[in-house]
Design goal:
Layout: E1 4-11, E2 14-19, E3 24-28, H1 44-47, E4 51-53, E5 58-60, H2 69-75, E6 77-79, H3 81-90, H4 100-110
Antiparallel strand pairs: 1-2, 2-3, 3-6, 4-5
């Protein structure tokens, strides 16, 4: 099983996904935003509100849209830690002297998840 622990918005409809297995993936969800449930996600500002629901171990939005973690793993481009760090810096999400782990800790502290 490929459970998601964290997700970071990069740009357009691209997310960096962190899997419980330790894998990191880059997912472009634009081609998959079809149907009534996903229509609101075509608004990039709404798409950016993505978060991980720890009860179902995948990404969700307030309109109850989600994607199966197995599907997200399949469509994701696998990234090494070095590639992930470079992409986060390029997207200006990660400070020059910051590690992805430090960034994730800040995100988790700013947006605590409800207890399961």
């Amino acid at each position: 099983m490929h459970l998601i622990t964290d997700a970071i918005y990069l740009d357009e409809y691209k997310l960096m996904l962190f899997f419980k297995s330790g894998n990191i993936g880059l997912a472009d969800l634009q081609p998959y935003l079809n149907g009534e449930m996903f229509e609101p996600l075509k608004d990039v500002n709404y798409f950016k509100t993505v978060r991980v629901n720890p009860n179902i171990d995948t990404i969700v939005w307030d309109n109850r849209a989600d994607f199966a973690p197995e599907f997200l793993f399949e469509i994701s481009q696998g990234l090494s830690q070095t590639e992930a760090t470079a992409l986060l810096r390029q997207a200006k999400v990660l400070a020059e002297n910051e590690t992805p782990g430090e960034l994730l800790a800040k995100i988790r502290a700013a947006h605590p998840q409800p207890a399961a």
